[in-house]
Amino acid sequence: MSAETLLGQEPWIRLASFLAVLMVMAAWELWAPRRAPSVGKAWRWLNNVGVVALDSLLVRLLFPAGAVALGAWVEDQGWGLLGWLGLPFWVTLLVAVVVLDGVIWAQHWAFHKVPLLWRLHRMHHADPDIDVTTGLRFHPLEILLSMGIKVLAILALGAPAVAVLLFEVLLNATSLFNHGNVRLPPRLDRRLRLVVVTPDMHRVHHSWHRDETDSNFGFNLPWWDRLFGTYRAQPRDGHQGMTIGLHAFRDPRWLRLDRMLLQPWSREADDPAADQPTPD
Q: Where does the UniProt entry say this protein principally localizes (predicted)?
């Protein structure tokens, strides 16, 4: 597929893959849920989907060309490390996807460790339940910062357009998958988490215990957490007994879209201890 054809089809490829994975995960959650919801699902879904609609609109307005178009331009100019190395295309594709995934892992880690960034990211963690729509619930400012980081990574790496599109589709699909409130057989989960972040693995990251929140940062590949010592196999309270979300944002009013958008400036969680209960 030529770069021109790819750029023309890119929005439809991404939209089709997004809707397909969303519908499959939503049906799976109804068929085999891992946990019973603690709040009304319809209201949560309405507001969480509202967040992703707003995020998508802002990205298209402020980055009209998009990451894939940047990859096509970088490829055409021969910029970046991969362009200089002259590797076979399939190696370039593989390296680009893995390195971009590592960049997103590092970004996620930083959004937990830098207080100002955490104020943006905690909107994602304040969801009192975790399901497929939690994978869409990111503050618009976090999405824009993430896009800026991605742009710098593509430029430095010289990631070609096909690699960027593949990475974007994989990242979106795995985020929907690993936030899913779905049940997997334990043996299958143990095998899958060797190559991809599973729902049980990522659910630990949404525990309200801070030491568990600061673990399992991966969205796609699970190897970074094992490599950097942030992997945690299971939550201390068990998947049925664990509490999802943040201590400071248990009130149902924080489910509203307008309240979510204002959450980074809320004084209710200015005390770092208010974000999480004291670990056991």
A: membrane
Rounded to whole angstroms, the Cα distance separating 54 from 123 reads 14
For 114, residues 6+ apart whose C-beta sits below 8 A from its C-beta are none
User: Contact 86/95 with Cβ under 8 angstroms?
Assistant: no
> Under a CB-based contact definition with an 8 Å cutoff, are residues 135 and 178 in contact?
yes
CB-CB neighbours of 8 under 10 Å = 11
Contact between 168 and 14 under an 8 Å Cβ cutoff? The reply is yes
Q: What is the pLDDT of residue 280?
A: 43
What is the per-residue burial (b if ≥16 Cβ within 10 Å, else e) of 187-207? eeeeebbeebbbbbbbbbbbb
CB atoms within 10 A of CB 151: 15
Provide the whole-model pTM. 0.90
List the end-to-end C-alpha distance of the chain, in Å, as a whole number.
Answer: 55
Domain boundaries, the chain: 3-274
